[in-house]
């Protein structure tokens, strides 16, 4: 579909001045089957691995299976004497169509070192090559793998959280729903950063507030991402978290969104549904921020986000404040 809000300066005045360079960093062109490979390549070119050893972190690649299901990703463990630690299952973003664990490496290294936790960043299969159910199946297999290996990884099975950004946040929310319904693997907390929850956002039926979605992740990109992810499958929960019938019994939640993010209103709606179901929710919204604002290093908003994200995850994992 054509994006009805394409005026290049429509909301520029609402964007925090520190974030203006982001408009040059992330191109505004629509994503299509023809250029998806170029977008993926550009994202890979921006990936820089952190110096894990200097941070006191052991990073290793996992490539295995559990019950015939592939499990792949990057595992982070603090150096030093082993003891029982909480764990965080991280899911990277990319609209269900792009991204890789390496793109989140610096943040995961820093979290592992700062909180003294085990982190597994799952490398799930991407759409459109692998639509529903493959991405969520991969995340569920990663959760199962973590639980089955708690003893060898020195992980407390009662303190395993899930989370991610954008599509990663959507998959984390979907994973929490699936885990609740299956009842096999416990999740104590979900850490959702502007999660991608509703396939209708930005559609002709629900174009939404014209003051959101101009930067980084547009209506066209959102509809392309969802169409690629859904394939021929119906838009139902758990893969589409916004369609879940009940939020009762879902884990405590830290949900972050941004004033100019296309997902702002679907995020607020989901937070309200969680709260109405009795789920403990910390809801955070930044003025002047847009989707992917953390891609720009060294900003005031970025530093604030890193600190608040870390504190919220520590709280959700039951670590001392």
N-end to C-end Cα span: 47 Å
Low-confidence stretches: 1-7
Order of the strands making up the biggest sheet: 1-2-4-3-5-6-7-8
Order of helices and strands: HHEEEHEHHEHEHEHEH
Counting DSSP H or I runs of 4 or more residues, the number of helices is 9
Residue-averaged pLDDT: 95
Which percent bin holds the helix content?
Answer: 25-40%
Shape: globular
Strand content: 15-25%
Which structural class fits the helix and strand makeup?
Answer: alpha/beta
**Gyration radius, in Å:** 18 Å
Walk me through the structure.
It is globular and about 55 Å long. The chain starts with 21 loop residues before the first helix and ends in a 5-residue tail after the last helix. The protein is built from 9 helices and 8 strands. Strands 1-2-4-3-5-6-7-8 form an 8-stranded mixed sheet, sandwiched between helices. The protein is 32% helix and 19% strand. With 321 residues, the protein is α/β, with parallel strands linked by helices.
Task: Map the helices and strands.
Layout: H1 22-25, H2 36-45, E1 57-66, E2 69-78, E3 85-91, H3 105-115, E4 118-122, H4 134-148, H5 150-153, E5 155-165, H6 167-182, E6 189-193, H7 219-230, E7 252-258, H8 264-276, E8 281-286, H9 300-316
Parallel strand pairs: 3-4, 3-5, 5-6, 6-7, 7-8
Antiparallel strand pairs: 1-2, 2-4
Helix pairs in contact: 4-6
